[in-house]
Amino acid sequence: MRHSTGLAALAIVFGTTFATATAFAETAPKDVAFDEYGEVAESLTGTAGDPESGAALMDRGKGNCIACHQVSDLSELPFQGDIGPSLDGAAGRWSEAQLRGIVVNAKNTFPDTMMPSFYHTGPYIRPGDGFTGKAPEGELPPILTAQAVEDVVAYLMTLTDEQN
Amino acid sequence: MTKTLRYAGLAVSVLALTAMAAGAQEVVDDQLVVNGEIPIVTEAPAPDYASALGTIRSGWTFRSEDTQMMQADDFDNPGMLGVEAARAAFNSEMGTGGESCASCHDDPESLSTVRGTYPKWDEEHGTVQTVEMQVQECQTERMGMEEPYGYNSTDMINMVALLSSVARGTPVNVAIDGPAEATWKQGEEMYYTRYGQLELSCANCHEDNYDNMIRADHLSQGQINAFPAYRLKDAALVSVQNRFRGCIRDTMGETFAVGSPEFVALELYVASRGNGLSVEGPSVRN
Where would I find the Cytochrome c domain in this sequence (chain A) (predicted)? Predict the structure, then answer.
């Protein structure tokens, strides 16, 4: 952990001109440090999340958060689900570390939750190759990249009003 | 057939006009009576082992009024075209000795007790069999066919739709004890197993979240009393195990094969959760 923090700091110092260092600095799914409440205090990448990219990830495609959650701020997207709680005002109820922990692996915060773990690589029971129904070839990537998690968290941190 | 199709078209037009005249928010009649003469039990007390559901509900109760009405009249139900095709096959020579299904079974109506009691323990083979496996057994062991209907072939789905159609209104009543118990327990364990990269079990959606929306999908209890189902989005009759395959695929999981021992076990278990509902296939779903 100390090692990757050091690299993250290095990446920030050198900025995007040193792209390989940025990639190197990412915390791998199996190395994410959760506290006893399931929170993840440290950024997974050391690069601030982009709320606009995060908003795009809420839709079908990668994150598909609104399959289960309602977000009034994204009311232009139809058919928002109601399996999980509304995310309106999420930033007022949760800290960034809590939100990061929930997006990475909500099961550390809510042990029996149905919510998938978005920055996790198993072990899984009968994992598939995406939505093909077939067994994967090689190692499974997490559902979201480390930076995508940061982007989603950054977007969630903009949801400060109960009715966005 | 042409006549049937024409009537179906007419009926759909009349339905559409009626719906427009009545307005979209008309209260849904919660009673399904097929052709005005076959009452269907779409809600019933849950069996003890499915007590989490309280009341078991056919998928029909979760669908829109338009979809519900399509199933209430065989002229409107596109799945009945498959039934008609299978009725013709039922009377056609298939076997090496020139037998048809009708050689032993007279007519499909004589098999009206089959659909509701399958999957069922088969003493001769020492395994739980689905209706599809029973059809294949007849074809290979009694009729001498080298190549029986494929498990998920259109011919097979149509035949199961025929056997369901003649059983409509009879209760689902699969046995879960005795020699079937081990298979049933295997199915129960699968039902609560969180498969795939999304780590979702059948129960996550269909026991804990039925009636909720997952994006545009109104989650049902996942009852299978109404299969084969004519799915409007596929414009085809779909077998129950093909639907299982689609569900596990959607967990970002590696599916089991249609006709596999695992899916037979799951089918027995899920069927038993609907004990007390009516056989309803071929149904219409979105």
Answer: 49-160
